[in-house]
Request: fold
Amino acid sequence: MKMKRLPTVRAALLAVPERNEDPWLVEELWMREAVGIIGGEPKCGKSFLALDLAVAVAAGIPCLRRFPVRHSGPVLLFAAEDAATIVRQRLEGIAYAAGVEFKCLNIHVITIPVLRLDRREHCQALQATVACLRPALLVLDPFVRLHAIDENVAGEVAPLLGFLRSLQRDHHTAVALVHHARKGAGHQRGGQALRGSSELHAWGDSNLYLCRIGQSLTLSIEHRAAPSSDRLQLALITKPPALALSIVDKQTLEPPQQPQASAQKRLEQILAEAKAPLTQRQLRDAARMRASHVGDALANLVAAGRVIRSADGYSISSL
Reply:
């Protein structure tokens, strides 16, 4: 019996990527439509980082107040270990720290108590939800609550990761999977410290690894097809009602931009792209920022002569 050959195409005839297509979902942090791991030992801020990523993508604002979002959109979230009230409280705190309206966040939280990727009916339901919402990002936290398999057996892990990869390819969504590292593995490279099969490390296109040594919390960024960064210093900053991770490594990065300066830049960008003057309410809705932040930023922009206020609203100064 003659075997049917596999289809092939000459390399020069492969589809050419669009030149203007931005490869980033969140610049330097997560590739567009990438699957990957947010990993680290217990109690090192993995869930806070995942929620910060979710707020950033949903609102189109910099993640960790530093990494710009290039493609914003809806976010689908399943938080298996936290009560709904805790999830809401954390999202509200991060939104407040970022200066965005919590009620405007396009984040959809899956509310069923159990979601299992090793159950066909659960996978079908998740796939239908992703197909309906078309999220730019799917966050699943954590992996250990999504199955009843042996994480150390590659043959059992691979089908679950393959399903998530199919969601990414079929629906053009990024997937962030929160996963634990082995206890006491802080001295190892992030991917090698992950608990379970090496399939998990190999699977990711973009991976974020948190490591706590004493009072020091660091973030390492790993990409399959882009430069990576290592050991960025983080801290969980509490300024009620804000509670969010922030970058504090002044040697690696410039000091974080002040919220007011960031708000002014965002409003100027919106006004520059507008074809007509915008009211303060329209600007607030477009920027998804708190009304008080919009008002203060506009007052500074008008005083600096960069924005003009008229009876129709606000517009960029032509001077």
Remarks:
- Confidence is low (pLDDT under 50) at residues 251-258.
